[in-house]
Specification:
Elements: E1 17-19, E2 22-31, E3 37-44, H1 49-57, E4 75-77, H2 85-94, E5 97-99, H3 127-136, H4 140-143, H5 150-170
């Protein structure tokens, strides 16, 4: 039958998951100390961000003048959503210092055992990562995902990051 569709088309595309407000994708960025993105991962919005953090850290590749590129940052500054013992343990196993504030949970009957976790002075630099996300929101194509393919959306994110780097170089 010309012009008729016999089976319903797939809606959403790759890496689109359900959230409380509808469907969406999750853009995860690793930024350096100046706020420049050095790692990017696009995934479905369904899994929690802490589950996607290892895949995002795997995208970090900083070229060096000689030798192989660096794949591990010295320190990872993250917000309270990443507060879990398993994530901290995996970071320490890789040789990365975690700087993550503790998430205030319900009142406990007994106080938590062990040394309290302190965030340190580098947590104050987290605004640079938030500035990176705010800058990415200036590109209308990145705010609302129009592409079905996650590879196309990730390519537009990489083009936007490249334009930002060129702008900073020429500034």
């Amino acid at each position: 039958l010309p012009g008729r569709q016999l089976c319903s088309g797939e809606r959403g595309g790759d890496a689109v998951g359900k959230t409380k407000v509808g469907k969406g994708s999750n853009v995860m960025v690793v930024a350096d100390g100046q706020g420049l993105p050095i790692g990017l991962h696009v995934a479905s919005a369904q899994p929690h961000e802490s589950q996607l953090a290892d895949a995002t850290l795997a995208t970090v590749r900083v070229p060096q003048p000689r030798g192989r590129p660096r794949t591990r940052p010295q320190e990872l500054v993250a917000d309270k959503a990443y507060d879990s013992q398993a994530f901290r343990r995996s970071l320490r196993r890789r040789g990365i210092k975690p700087t993550i504030p503790t998430f205030a949970r319900r009142d406990r009957k007994r106080p938590k055992r062990g040394r309290p976790i302190r965030t340190g002075p580098n947590y104050r630099q987290r605004w640079k990562v938030e500035r990176c996300f705010g800058w990415m929101d200036n590109y209308r194509r990145l705010v609302v995902r129009y592409e079905r393919s996650v590879a196309h959306y990730k390519a537009f994110c990489l083009i936007a990051i490249s334009l930002w780097c060129v702008h900073l170089i020429l500034k």
